[in-house]
From TrEMBL, chains A, B, C, D:
Keywords: Gluconate utilization, Oxidoreductase. This is Decarboxylating 6-phosphogluconate dehydrogenase. The keyword Cell wall biogenesis/degradation does not apply. GO terms for molecular function: NADP binding; phosphogluconate dehydrogenase (decarboxylating) activity. PROSITE patterns: 6PGD (PS00461). The keyword Isomerase does not apply. GO terms for biological process: D-gluconate metabolic process; pentose-phosphate shunt. InterPro entries: 6-PGluconate_DH-like_C_sf (IPR008927), 6DGDH_YqeC (IPR004849), 6PGD_dom2 (IPR013328), 6PGDH_C (IPR006114), 6PGDH_NADP-bd (IPR006115), 6PGdom_BS (IPR006184), NAD(P)-bd_dom_sf (IPR036291), Pgluconate_DH (IPR006183). It comes from Streptomyces reniochalinae. Residues 160-293 form the 6-phosphogluconate dehydrogenase C-terminal domain. It holds the Pfam family NAD_binding_2. Belongs to the 6-phosphogluconate dehydrogenase family.
């Protein structure tokens, strides 16, 4: 089939390539003329024969919104827009409404795969009517991994991004699981080769997984991760996962802990721990600033909230 | 080689079978005469030619301790004891000392594999001196999975059980990750087929893993898990993981949250939430007992800590 | 001064009384004619001499919005609206804009005090311009407690509700702190009188507080809280606190844990723990449904992820 | 009455003074001769007339153990030892057994009060038999605050330290509650005077408490706590609280979060977050080391696990 693809960055560029390998025609547009097939969105739409399918692969929020707005003007009734970016699921219903008023269909699609997607395929989760999904199914089939799994029609409009968001929430907590375990092993006197422990876990264990394989790869290039700072960005999807849980009164302790750990990792100093230090100083006369002089549990360990004397 | 194996339950029985398939001689003892090869521990020791290797596969704590005590009396200098049970790593040093006083070696070995181990092999993490480990290496090689991975000499005495303990801590948090994600998906209006979303994740995603495969199997037999109670036991190893983290001042929020979720799952009613209800009643006059009449956020939602009036 | 008060429920009715005791004139309107001073919002506005101050004390969300909409039509330039309900701080800016277009001022005010406010005074946190705040200051002074503290001009429009929201977030976590401590004490064999421990803490300790006093009162009427279910509603403000933290990348582990504990308390059974049970069953053959037969750590304790045999 | 007091440090010295003000005779011993009344433990015991009561106020663990050991040799049947230090409750039973073998009684006593205790009194929680407690009651009465509350016979031997430990656990979580709220308020654009918000909360609110008063004092000396590092020591009691909870299968999410926040505050860099960064790099090609160049959500925000292109 024929597909218009808007956004040819790290993800979109590779997706164009994989769809073409699947035997389809892709006309790609990007603001960067060096990588674009056409010079404008108008030209993109004009070069597709109807009914058209245009896949939007641009940053969520303002960029996606303006692209949808433009497409609503340029496309014709019976055409279809797919939002394959990382939009918040709450945006999907709005985009669907806006396009429906013009007779244009809408499918949202969460895409996972990163830099591995071109060769291994992209995991796809999409939402929309069966009719709309059918129009883009050949492209889904080209993008997905070759095996039995890797793509799903998750439900109504919004379900694709919701499912992808939850995937990322799970991913956060799984990464945190391995990270906590790694730090604990590294802290143990008896364990002399943490990397080999991780390596061994790749077979026969309950925790074998792709993330474990990646952890081993990372440790192979830097056994104690000394070249890295313990600093982790977070994508909007982790935040949205927690917000969706709050909306639905679902307790999400492990995923939320993982998100908060990332927040903390980005603070040079922790305001809340300054307050803890200040309070300890107020009631206990605990030394608070000479932090460089204290040991494991602080200057007043053990049992220091009422600091015991040096007696006996 | 020749191995004495003490404890032929669900794990030990299968391990005997797998070691024998590996071409070794196993003489097994169990209190249950129907499954034992010999009638007593004395007989077991007597039927092995020295230097002997005896693998202990009995419940951690008192049963393991008494078995080690007996073996310390029965074995000879140069013999070796392997503790393959789920002992706490802090027991290993004690057992090693006790046996060393008699000239007997000691290796601790954490074993993962459950009911799948007989066919797929057992993941093994062991600790001890290189010399002691070498004596039992052929058995490790018979038990482990066939691939490149699945067994590791993790470090000194205690390192095997420590590594296995951390494996289980990671496992707790990974299970919790999927469980939270599943509950959130089930709570979403737009997602109409949660099981198919999970199934699709088995390829191309960041979270593909053996636990995900198992989740799909579970959902295939009971799509909404309606036959189960939300009740989860915990093994000692989850608890020990958190205690080890506390000893080493390692923050472990996701693993600990997973442990606490299991604690809560086993309470018919939550004492701490009774106290929350009591306090709300004290300061706000909130209804506390007519819980069956309240909705999502309770009778006084929204914004109920200072209950707004019915005005306007 | 003269005040119009919309909403005469549990909070508004008592506030009317306290403002009147402060020597001011209050004309109250409520949909319930039995408690209202006037029959309609129009009548309320008509009976105030300008410049008018109208305090809105109705449920947040739709009721507050419609009241603000009506007042925007009824009031005149130079008048002032105070929103004293539990509105989300993000609504305040919208309400201020809407009223400003008509020349009407706006102040948001978070109110704490519950059933104790009439006698002890209400803690007030308000946001808005100095000019607008000055217009309602006499009413704030009448409502607040008699001591030096209890009211604050927290900042711009929205700051009052934001501060009140954070107050409630802190409150959640403080309640949870006492609740956790109480459950732990109740679980200890050695502690024979938990209530007296709580009572004793009311002097000389670091944790003495009004919430502790309330806990003692609650225990005095029901020593083990046996008449209560461990079920806790949550107001919107706890949820909004966590959402605000996510917006600002502030880690909030204790407050969020308190919110999630309330979510869990309202579930008859936990979906996520069903998934944990299902996974345990898949990999370990753990019994999952015969939960009534298991003890503290479950049937397979200790160390049950690889269930040890009964051997030795 | 007459009391021997071992340990005259920051706590013990002030306690000696307060007990003397209560009209009792205190003979104090400390390793530091400048502050001691007698030159040795033998001299201390010799100068007391029987039946003797000796209060031990030295660091928990080895120092307390050796003092108890020495007193077991020096004292006579019918004498009594009080451990007023921050011993772990699990030590109490052992000390009681050891002394009982010599006919010597034992009472454990948790003491709260810090630098404020001399003037305001010390909160006391003690455990032991009614007979033993009666022997030291006059000293308890002298030490406690003057009001109705502040001391409690919590239960059997160990109950005093257990109750004090839980007090400290609650204290951790209450401090964390205020700290989280403070950081969130400081992060809000609309709130222009966080210190005044905290000050106002001291009356009329649900969260009024001594810790809040201390927070206001701290902010009065350093409005944004700029002179402090966000670094907090922890006493053994916070750790023991979590361990006791694990022993009793009590979920303790807020208290544990507070403990972990302290652990994290003492890490120059977080090993676990290095692993998170490493994993993100592996699957997404996320920049990990150029952390100084990234903004709020990192270089790849928004929605960065599948980094969107620069398109449209």
């Amino acid at each position: 089939m024929e597909l218009g693809l808007v956004g040819l960055g790290k993800m979109g560029g590779n997706m164009r390539e994989r769809i073409r390998r699947g035997g389809h025609t892709v006309i790609g547009y990007d603001r960067n003329p060096d990588i674009a097939d056409v010079g404008s969105l108008e030209e993109l739409v004009g070069s597709l024969s109807g009914p058209r399918v245009v896949w939007v692969m641009v940053p969520s929020g303002a960029a996606t919104q303006s692209t949808v707005d433009e497409l609503a003007e340029l496309l014709s009734p019976g055409d279809l827009v797919v939002d394959g970016g990382n939009s918040r699921w709450t945006d999907d219903e709005k985009h669907a409404e806006e396009l429906k008023a013009k007779g244009i269909g809408f499918v949202d699609c969460g895409v996972s795969g990163g830099v591995w997607g071109l060769e291994n395929g992209y995991a796809l989760m999409y939402g929309g009517s069966a009719e709309d999904v059918a129009k883009v199914q050949p492209v889904f089939d080209a993008l997905k991994p070759e095996g039995k799994f890797g793509s799903v029609h998750a439900g109504k409009v919004g379900a694709g991004h919701f499912a992808k968001m939850v995937h990322n929430g799970i991913e956060y907590a799984m990464m945190q699981s391995f990270a906590e375990g790694w730090e604990l092993l590294e802290s143990a006197d008896s364990v002399t080769d943490v990397r080999e422990v991780f390596r061994s876990w790749q077979e026969g264990t309950v925790i074998r997984s792709w993330l474990l394989d990646l952890a081993v790869k990372a440790l192979d290039s830097d056994e104690h991760l000394e070249a890295l700072r313990g600093y982790a960005a977070d994508s909007g999807e982790g935040r949205w996962t927690v917000e969706a849980a709050i909306d639905n009164a679902v307790p999400l302790p492990a995923i939320t802990a993982s998100l908060f750990a990332r927040f903390s990792s980005r603070q040079d100093d922790s305001p809340q721990m300054k307050m803890i230090a200040a309070l300890r100083n107020q009631f206990g006369g605990h030394a608070v600033t000479a932090a460089d002089k204290v040991g494991e549990m602080g200057a007043d360990a053990p049992g220091a909230d009422v600091t015991p004397p040096t007696g006996g």
